[in-house]
Every structure is written in structure tokens, then in C-alpha cells.
Amino acid sequence: MPQDVEFEVPVQGRVSPGLERARLRNLEWVRDSGLVRGEEALRRYAFSRVADSAAYGFPEAAGEDLDLCFDLLGWFFLFDDQFDAQDGRMDDALAVCGELVDLLRSGASGAKGSAPVVAAFMDCWGRMSAGMSPQWRRRTVHDWVDYLAGWPVKVADRVHGLMPQPHVHLRARRRTIGVRPLLAAAERVGRFEVPPLAWCSSQVEGMRVAACDAIVAMNEVHSFEKDRAGGHPNLVLGLMRHQGRSEEEALRQVRETVRLAAASFLELRSELPRLARTVGGGPELARYADAIAAWIAGYRDWGAAAPRYTVHGHPGDLGLENLVTPPAR
Q: Which CATH superfamily is domain 19-309 in?
């Protein structure tokens, strides 16, 4: 796998010192919630270290806050892999997206749903939204709904064997990469909220888009061989198919996407003091920018060594079990 590719991201990364404790506790949560069943599934999940990405993306989180972050990231990867399964569960997975959208929009408190992946999400959402303002809840529900609504597009492309044009693929991946809900989680564990007018500004939105593009592009490089083997859409493969790039040229171009996105973020970040003088929220904007920077650098550092993307004897997909249909009674 092309994990040894270096990305030009001039942001210093950090890791939460609570990683080891949170990792062990997360293993208990995925097992108790039914997301990972049996010793072989637990071994594969533990090997993948996918939830470790939480310690890189939320370096200041500790205790129960870090536990929440680990559970969210574990859920993200396990949910993602349900859509790579070849056992006919695709329709059920899409139905789960609809169920989660309905639960989020209804504002149901304490709802669990029938499938393990739904119940686990609602557990995370209950903890994630606790104590947050109605404004934060409304915009975060929107971010989660947009994430879930992006999956039918990805599924349709896979089912039809479509390799979208690179710019089309990048636009779709901005939704399913999950960066926006994770940035909302950063506010939650950081005990702050960006004021509404500042959060809605095109400058802050540009920072979020830059983070999405940087993380998507890095992920597309790391998962390139996995996607090629599975026949799945991928930014590198799209450049090779539609623009006639060689593999080396396509990888170089995606690396340039990362560089440009990171540069765009840093430029927009440097202008935040002027925005704050106009709309207020200077301290919150600074913390939000730090959270975005942590995720760009954190994904770079975690992804470079993540066992999920290694090739020696360990498939990347975690979905040994069907998590999207109710368990037999």
C-alpha cells in the first residue's frame, strides 16, 4: 500500500496521552454494543487500530470525552465497511441510513433502533449532544444527515461500476468522509461553540472544505490499492481513467491536492482575527481552527502507519458481521 507517501501538510500533529487506556475501553464498547462479535472479529478490529485515529484528531480530549471520540471513530469505520460487504446487505445498509436520518430529525431522546449499528450510533449521539445548545444540535443534525445521505450516491456508483470524474468524486467524498460531524464533536469535547454568525461565514466554511479535501485526498492514496482490488471509485483511479495519468502521475496530483488544501486552510486561518473583529467569537474561532488543524495533521500521522491499510495478510475491511439487520431473536 502507498502508505510511505509523504504529504506536504505544514501542521504539527499531537496525540492524546490517554490513547492506550481509551483503546482498551473502546474494545469493550464495540463488543458490548454488538458492533464486533466473536474473538476473530475483535482481533481484527484491535489489529486495525481504526479508533486510534481519535487520539490523533482530538489530542486534547481525555477521560470520558476521549472515550466518546474513540467510540465515534470505531463506529465510523465499522459503518463504512458495511457498504463494502459482498453478502447482499447493501439494501439493508441503505435502509439503516434512512432510519438514522429519521431518528436524528425526530429529535428522539434515548431511541436505540433495532440494528446494532443504529443503537451504537444513538448511544454516541446521546453523549455527543449532551449539554449542547439547540443551535449546535440543529446544525450538527444537518451535518450527520448530509453524511448519511451521501452514502446512496457512493453505493449507486459502486453498483453501476462507475468511476466518476475526479472533481465529481471529490465532491461526493466531502460528504461521506465524516469531517463535519467530527468537527462538531471537537466543539463538544472542547466545551465551546462557535457563534452562529462566525460558524456560517464563508471563511469558516472554506476552512471546513479545505480540511475535507486534504483528508479525502490522503485517504484516497492510502486506500488506493484496496479500492483498485475491489473495483471501487477512487481519486487516483479516476485520474488514471479520465485524464490518462500514469499511477505515479496520479499519485503526485493527489498529493498536490493535499498541499493546496492545507495551504488554503492556513491562509484562511490567518485571516480569522479580522473576521472575529467583525462578527465576534475570537477565542472560539481560534479553538475551532485548532481543531481543524488537529484533524488534518492527525489523519496524516495516523494514516501513515494505520494497519487498516497494510497489505500483508490482513484485509482492510472490518465488517465480518452483518451489523445493519436486527439480530435473530
A: Farnesyl Diphosphate Synthase (1.10.600.10)
